[in-house]
Amino acid sequence: MEIRRFLKNKVSFFGFLLVTLIIITAILSPLISPYDPLEQHMVKRFSKPSAEFFGGTDRYGRDIFSRTLWGTRISLVVGFSATAIGAILGTVLGLIAGYTKGHLSKGIMWLTDVFMSFPTMVLAIIVVVAFGPGNQNVVLAIGLAFTPRFIRLARASTLSVSEQVFIEASRATGQSSVGIIGKHVLPNIAGDIIVMSTLWIATAIRLEASLSFLGLGTQPPTPSWGNMIREGMLYFMRAPWLSLVPGAGIFFTVIGFNMLGDGMRDVLDPKLRGRLT
Questions:
Q1: What residues does each domain of the chain span?
Q2: How far is CA 106 from CA 73, 94, 101, 178, in A?
Q3: Domain 11-23+56-272, CATH 3.40.50.10260 — does that match?
């Protein structure tokens, strides 16, 4: 039934197709890219998009289309990995803060409020500056920046579920707190976590591109949408395709994940199911 509801939403279904196409492109990029992303054709530098170079070439004669395809891999790996870190850490801490009472819960929420006072981008920059640039540190930085958001969501959902009658019944039968959380609370809040994770993958991809644009993310010559746009801005009036092609990759990827996330929210949230026609 949930699949049918999802398929009835044309916008969400289009987002699913778009995300699927992007993932397939990332997996098959070594096979479908016409050139090696690091291969230089100096005699054909700044070539306009053509049948030979679909996305044109940069100042080193590297094919922009091939580099954009390979950049898809980095963006998706960072997006999925960072969101997974934030979701796992945030859900665990949110479950603890929402189900338990006392100083532990207050301490978790106090730290959450402190980190929530920083914008996500600023918090990610602080972490990257502390640990240094690079893909692994970018994943860690974005994941830690996402953690307080997931803590808030998991705690709120846990508080709501914990007030249900079946939770009280489980306590009365002598089930342990860990057992109740694992068997009853976590399955009931999983839908909210999945929906938020899908939406925040798009945010993680934007953050990775932003950090790379600032020189804190993926380091050249490895292709990343962010550092490709940064290099292209130096020659935008002469060769706008240097920035527009990777920019299109960011645009369609973010749109796809947002559409997919909206569809999953409509399917998993009982209050919104009636809106699907």
A1: 11-23+56-272
A2: 40, 11, 8, 19
A3: no
Phi, psi for residue 115 in degrees, rounded to 5: -70, -30
> Length of the chain in residues, anyone?
277
Residues 6+ apart with CB under 8 A from 201: 79, 80, 83, 257
Query: What is the Cα–Cα distance from 229 to 247, expressed in whole angstroms?
Result: 7
Q: How far apart are CA 147 and CA 112, in angstroms?
A: 8
Question: Each residue of 7-19: pLDDT tens digit?
Answer: 677 778 888 899 9
CA–CA separation, 217 vs 133, rounded Å? 5
The H-assigned helical ranges of 100-134 are: 103-116, 120-131
pTM here is: 0.88
Quick one: pLDDT at residue 221? 87
Taking a C-beta distance cutoff of 8 angstroms, is the pair 172, 211 a contact?
Answer: no
Which of these, 214, 209, 262, lies nearest to 68 by C-alpha position? 209
d(CA 7, CA 22): 19
